[in-house]
Design a protein that fits this description.
This protein is about 25% helix and about 35% strand. The chain is built from four helices and six strands; from the N terminus they run ααααββββββ. Residues about 1-30 have low confidence and may be disordered.
Length: about 160
């Protein structure tokens, strides 16, 4: 009797381990490695395509910054401007979102101007009545756009 009971338990355990094909979780495969490489190559076709990925994908953004990010800060106080170098390390970096709808400028508390000249692009961000004024410089190196420099003139 014990043997029959043990065999029944064993059969139940083994049969419950079989997963029905219909119950399997859907595959999370995005595509082939060739598809991935093609997508990555397309992210840098133009600065605007790159910027869309930069704004929407935080890991992409962090991978496209030349850390430590060097820049210049200008302190515009009453005694005259004071300039000093600044360095931002990856653990100090705040994710940026340069998304801006020029058709609805009142929706934002800042303005954004983009200038692209060859393999270099700048984004100037200015706050409306806030004193915010920062310029970010991007450079295309080895086929990839990278954030390489910033200048902060905020008051």
């Amino acid at each position: 009797m014990k043997a029959l009971y043990s065999i029944t338990i064993l059969v139940l355990l083994l049969s419950s381990c079989n997963v029905d094909e219909k119950k399997k979780a859907p595959s999370r495969t995005i595509g082939s490695e060739k598809d991935y490489k093609e997508k990555a190559r397309n992210q840098d076709t133009t600065f605007y395509v790159f910027l869309e990925h930069f704004n929407n994908d935080t890991s992409f953004q962090l991978n496209r910054i030349d850390f430590p990010l060097c820049g210049k800060v200008v302190n515009l106080d009453s005694e005259g401007p004071e300039t000093f170098d600044d360095t931002i390390y990856v653990n100090e970096y705040w994710i940026k979102d340069f998304t801006y709808d020029e058709k609805q400028p009142d929706k934002f508390d800042f303005t954004r101007e983009i200038q692209v000249q060859g393999d270099e692009a700048t984004i100037e961000v200015s706050g409306k009545e806030t004193g915010l004024s920062v310029t970010y410089t991007f450079r295309k190196t080895k086929g990839k756009w990278m954030l390489v420099w910033f200048e902060d003139y905020s008051t």
